[in-house]
Design a protein that fits this description.
about 80% helix; globular; Growth Hormone, Chain: A; disordered N terminus
Length: about 400
Amino acid sequence: MTSTLAPTPTVGAARRWAMLAASTLAQAATAVMVHGPAFLIPALHAQGMSLPRAGLVAAAPTVGVMLTLVAWGAVTDRRGERFVLLTGLAGTTVAGLASVLAGGTAALAAALFLAGAAAASTNAASGRVVVGWFPPERRGLAMGVRQMAQPVGVGIAAVSIAAIAATSGVPAALVVPTITCALAAVVVLAVVVDPPRPQHRDAESAANPYRQDSYLARIHAVSVLLVVPQFLVWTFSLVWLVQDRGWAPAAAGAVVAVAQVAGALGRIAVGHLSDVVGSRMRPLRWVALAAAGTLAFLGLAAALDLAVAVLLVVVATLVTVADNGLAFTAVAERAGPFWSGRALGVQNTAQFLTASVVPPLAGLTVTHLGYAATFAVAAAFPVLAAPLVPVRRERSLS
C-alpha cells in the first residue's frame, strides 16, 4: 500500500515539533496515571490495607490499559488521532477525579481501572500523530523523543505521588495524575491536528497488512521476546543492588534513576540512527544482539562479583529499551493510516501481557538459581529475537 503519511507543506517544522511535544506530554500524562498508583502501595499498607490488596489496587489501571488498547486503536483508525486523544484524556481526567473522591477500596480500584482504560487511548494515537506529521527521514528521531514519555511519566510519579500520599493522603496524591491529564488535554486541543490521509472511501479497500506477509507478526514476536529482559532489568536491578551487592537503597535508587535517563536518551539515539541508515529493522537487530551480549556479560560479572556488573546494569537498561521506538515506528509505517491503530494496539497489548508475567517468573528463577543465572538466562530471549527481525522484508523508508 502506498504511504500517505508524509506531512503536507501547509504545516511547518515548528508546528510539527509542537505536535510532537503535545503527543509526548499526552503519553507522559497517562503514564503518570497508569504507573503512579504503584507508588501508593506504602501509604495504602500504612493505612491497614494488606499488601496483596494494595497490589491489586495499583494494578487496576494496567488491567484497564491491556483490555482497551486494540479498541482504542480501532477508534483511531476510524475517527482520527485528535478525537481519540481528546476523548481519552478527558475520560482519564474524569476517572482520575473519581479516584480522588472514591470512598473505599472497591471504588478506588474501579476508578483506577476506568482511568487506565481511558489512558490507553494515547498509546496508538500519540504515536500516529508523530508518524503522520514527520517525514520518513525524521520519524525515527521524532518517535525516539515520543518514546521518552513513559520513563518521564514514571519519574514524575516517583518523585511526587509517594511523598504526597505519605504527608497528605492517597486522595491528594491522585490529584497529580488527574491535573496532569487535564493539562495535556488542553495542550492537545490547542496544538494537535489530524495528519493527512486518504479519503474515507479508500479505507474500505485498504488491504489487511497481516494478510500480505508476516512482517508485522514478526515484529510483534520480536518485541515480545525483547520485553522479557527489559522488565527483568527494570524490576530486579534495584533489588539486586540492595540484596546481593549490599548497597544502600538510596544509592541503588540513584543508579536506577541514571539508568532510566540513559534508556530514555538511548531511544532518541537509536531512532536517529534508523533515520541515518534508512532502516528500522537493521538497528532493531543490532539492538537485539547488543542486549544478548550485555545480559550474558552481566550474568558473568554478577557471578564473579565484579564491580563492572553495576555499569553493565546501566548499559542493559539502555539497550533493552532501545527497541521500543524502532518497532513502534515500523509497525505504524507498514500498517498504514487505516490499520496502524489496531496494529499498534496489538503491539502494545502483546508487550503488556508479556511484561505482566515477567516479574513473578523471574522472581522464581532468582529464588532457585540466583541473580547471575537469571541475567544469563534472559540473554537467550534477544538471541531468539535477532533472527526473527524481518530485515529482508523491510521496504524503503522513502
